[in-house]
Amino acid sequence: MAIETMTMGKALNAGLRRALENDPKVVIMGEDVGKLGGVFRITDGLQKDFGEDRVIDTPLAESGIIGTAVGLAIRGYRPVCEIQFDGFVYPAYDQIVSQVAKMHYRSKGRLRLPIVIRIPYGGGIGAVEHHSESPEAYFAHTAGLKVVTCATPSDAYHMIQQAIASDDPIIFFEPKRRYWEKGPVDVDASPADAYPLHASRVVRQGTDVTVLAYGPMVRTALDAAAAVEAEGRSLEVIDLRTLSPLDLGPVYESVRRTGRCVVVHEAPRNVGLGAEIAARVTEECFYSLEAPVLRVTGFDTPYPPARLEEDYLPDLDRVLDAVDRTFGW
Amino acid sequence: MAKGDGGSTSRGKRATSPPKRSRTASTGDPEMIQLLTPDGERIDSATGPDGTEYRVDFTDQEYRDIYRDLVVVRKLDAEATALQRQGELGLWASLLGQEAAQVGSGRALRPQDMVFPTYREHGVLYCRGIDPIMPLGLFRGVDQGGWDPNEFKFNMYTIVIGAQTLHATGYAMGVAMDGKTGGDDGEAVIAYFGDGASSQGDVNESFVWSSVFNAPIVFFCQNNQYAISEPLERQTRIPLYQRASGFGFPGVRVDGNDVLATYATTRVALDNARHGQGPTFIEAYTYRMGAHTTSDDPTRYRIASEVEAWKAKDPIARVRAFLEKQQIADADFFAEVDEHARREAVHLRERVLAMPDPEPLTLFDNVYPNGSPLLDEQREQFSRYLASFEGSAH
């Protein structure tokens, strides 16, 4: 077992490299993924080592990226598409929702589209507009897609390989503000041996309040838990990891113990993942709840100018404010 | 076998002439490839705008076979329209008038070629050897396409306008990546779409992609003059085939009601693709004689005289006239073909009426190759709900 410390960006790069090595049908396609290695350098060096047929710099048109990936998948390839930024996925939305998501169903299971669509998402990097959005709910709402997101370098390394190995179409959200954070990665573990792709995970045990987060907000939730530990308050933090289908079994188990639940995401609150989670937790844990399930989210505004994003984004204090409020009932 | 006396390239006016700005989209175009006139006169060869020469050298049997295809395809289509009118199909998108475009291009395919259809390619589907009941299952609502796309090399119907052109392009890129171009046994891909789809972003993106990747693909546009109610001039101010040059590959307009010309142009374009020479745009200039679908009323947006003018260019009548004039087929043959088509239609009707509705719980099948616990839960809940009615009069 070789444990290496690396950034999430490097972990994704290493995971993609292994996927390319292990299966000649895996191809990476997107804007600037070749010589440049992607605007975040996630595909750095891959075209040089695997060639222009396997790491394809595409024309600048997102619907074209996904639409041609559908054809390549029908042909037997396993396309890994990079959408350069969250806010640029919408031109591809039709192909994703109407074609990628439905073709297996429409064909009575005869066609499989093992496509992974990587999307750097979320704010916190001071970017200009359309570069900081959290569109995961659009995709989680669509039958036929699976949606996952990683929060650590280790998960990034393993989950990207698991997603590529899966025959399901998967939207793979990468928390771009965590690209540069480092963590340990077991680079020898095979995707099959790693923690399952579609499973949530308790990342900090606690007794008083269950805090649910995913992607960029896992770190925020963990920071919040550490901050209140000294006050004698014990938060259990669960990294949801899979947004569609949600894996709420561990959540129910936790909430039945704590009686309190707070959901955290950057995306706007209205009809977001938090709403679905709150409804399900209420259905399953009704008699255990000491307070309503509370949500800590972005606001129902367009993503604001960067100088306002610290106000828009949930942070440690807003998480703890919600935690405190669960004790007010 | 006797040939018509056309034998010239007089119809091959070069594409260097300025684009017409006609306001009437239904007029013919002297630039189009034609090998069989509406009167059934054979033209030996025609030359495309890039100098390509198009011809066919069918045996008498091949002429008779392609006539039979046209008649059967039209008859099955008429039967499907009737079934819709009788409430047996929810909808039907008729191909009436477009038989030559579909049979000509469909018969030009080689077994290894892959097809990406719209939702109206019943004639191409027939040429691919797929049971013609399959699209009726879709329009009846018992499934969303019952054939195996890989077995027949004919993908699912695509209803979202133009989306399939990108799928075809990606598939063609895969063909090239697999090294399956460059020889007579190479593979080619054909993408069907219409004049309305030519305005879609996806179609234009597929032109860009196929051009820069030199994909082995033929874009076969059936310009049937209308996108539901909107006439051609709402989509374009130049002949559609001329758009290809802006993307860097050849385009040609063919008489879409001439099965020989559509066959010849498609064959050449597919062979160019399979030999690694990249994409071709074929504009099959035709006319949708019926409604867009059975939900449409074309009398609201087009005049009867226009339809009458196109009736005179009927794709089947001209083949029959040719076969008769050249004594390739006799009255017994035509009667036998009609009877064959009638029997096929009766058989189709019988089987459509016998199509069972799917079982309710199958609606949960095949959402994901690897399944989903969420769906398992919903299926289980719905199953218990349905079971709760058992024994009741419900």
Description:
The complex is a heterodimer of chains A (329) and B (394). Chain A has helices spanning 8-22, 46-50, 62-75, 93-100, 103-106, 136-140, 153-165, 216-229, 249-258, 273-285, 309-312, 316-325, and strands at residues 3-7, 26-30, 55-57, 78-82, 116-121, 146-149, 170-175, 182-186, 201-204, 209-213, 235-239, 242-244, 261-268, 294-298. Chain A has 329 residues and is an alpha/beta fold. In chain A, the strands form three sheets. In chain A, strands 3-2-4-5-7-6-12 form a seven-stranded mixed sheet, sandwiched between helices. The longest helix of chain A has 15 residues, at 8-22. In chain A, 56% of the residues are buried. The mean pLDDT of chain A is 98. Chain B has 13 helices and nine strands. In chain B, strands 3-4-5-9-8 form a five-stranded parallel sheet, with helices on both faces. In chain B, α1 (60-85) packs across α2, α1 packs antiparallel against α11 (315-325) and α2 (99-108) packs parallel to α9 (259-274). The longest helix of chain B has 26 residues, at 60-85. Residues 1-28 of chain B have low confidence and may be disordered. Chains A and B meet through α3, α4 and α5 of A and α6, α7 and α13 of B.
How many β strands of chain B by DSSP?
9
The helix fraction of chain B, in percent, is 40-55%
The major beta sheet of chain B can be summarized as:
5 strands, parallel
Q: Please work out how many helical segments of chain B DSSP would assign.
A: 13
pLDDT averaged over residues of chain B: 92
Please report the number of helical segments of chain A: 12
Q: What quaternary form is this?
A: heterodimer
User: Beta-sheet strand percentage of chain B?
Assistant: 5-15%
Radius of gyration of chain A: 19 Å
Name the largest protein-protein interface in this structure.
A-B, 46 and 43 residues
| Low confidence ranges of chain B | 1-28
User: Roughly how much helix do the residues of chain A carry, as a percent range?
Assistant: 25-40%
Shape designation of chain A: globular
